[in-house]
Amino acid sequence: MFTDFKKAIQNHFAQMSEIADHVYEVEVDKDELWNLYLDSFPAGTNEIYRERREYDCSCCRQFIRAIGNVVFIKDAVVHTIWELTDLGTTFQPVADALDVYIKAHAVTDVYISKFAKIGTDKNHSQYGNRVYDMGFRKDNVTGEWIRIITFPTKHHWRDKSDLELIKTSAEQLIDICEGRGIATCYLTQPGCANGGLDWDSQVKPLIERILDDRFVIADYQL
């Protein structure tokens, strides 16, 4: 049952939030995440009932879309909320598929506002909505150690990205890179995609005035 699956996720979230160094979210397409959830059930376990599949309800959808992209950083290793075991033949393939999917995406913002919905009192507001150096993690493909630095673009996960916050984050990123002697820094296009901003007309003109040629953004180098 989905209620048991949800309970397992909630328990895992509470446990990890107590021991993890930091809690963040990755930038994903929430519709794509939801569709992957639906499509990962083994054949015959999520059949259409009336007009929807069995596990395609508004409660399921809200839960998956709200916290499905949460990750924990523990000892420079990224963990997802989907790292679950002993879920049975119906839900274990779903958790495994979502775990792989989330780990393939870049960490973006600090996860703050959604804690109340998961039922834990712990939050990371002490870090503030600012750029933060999370340290190093090992790339699963190349084996290289990569420094991860957050770049907040939103004040709340539901909001559109804020240009003023992007400006502040860019300035803070400069300070971190200079303080740590970082010669090259790679970013996605901040505030675009799920952030709702346009790269060419809004974000690019802003950060071009702040970031220099040490910073490589997607296919565009400043």
Which terms summarize this structure?
222 residues, alpha+beta, three-stranded mixed sheet, 38% helix
Outline of this structure?
By secondary structure, the protein is of the alpha+beta class. It has seven helices and eleven strands.
What does this structure look like?
There is one protein chain. The chain is globular and about 55 Å long. The N and C termini lie far apart (about 50 Å). It has seven helices and eleven strands. A four-stranded antiparallel sheet has the order 5-4-1-6. Strands 9-10-11 form a three-stranded mixed sheet, with no helix packed on it. It has helices spanning about 1-20, 30-40, 60-65, 90-105, 115-120, 165-180, 200-205, and strands at about 20-25, 50, 50-55, 70-75, 75-80, 105-110, 135-140, 145-150, 185, 215, 220. With about 220 residues, the chain is of the alpha+beta class.
- Strand order of the main beta sheet, please? 5-4-1-6
Most strands sheet: 4 strands, antiparallel
Amino- and carboxy-terminal Cα gap: 50 Å
Please indicate the percent range of residues in DSSP E strands (runs of 2 or more). 15-25%
What's the helix-strand series? Answer: HEHEEHEEHEHEEHEHEE
- Give the count of helical stretches: 7
From the helix content, strand content and strand pairing, which structural class follows? alpha+beta
Backbone shape: globular
Kindly state the percentage of residues in helix: 25-40%
Number of DSSP-assigned strands: 11
Q: Mean pLDDT, rounded to whole units? A: 79
- Rg, nearest Å: 19 Å
* Uncertain ranges: 48-52, 112-127
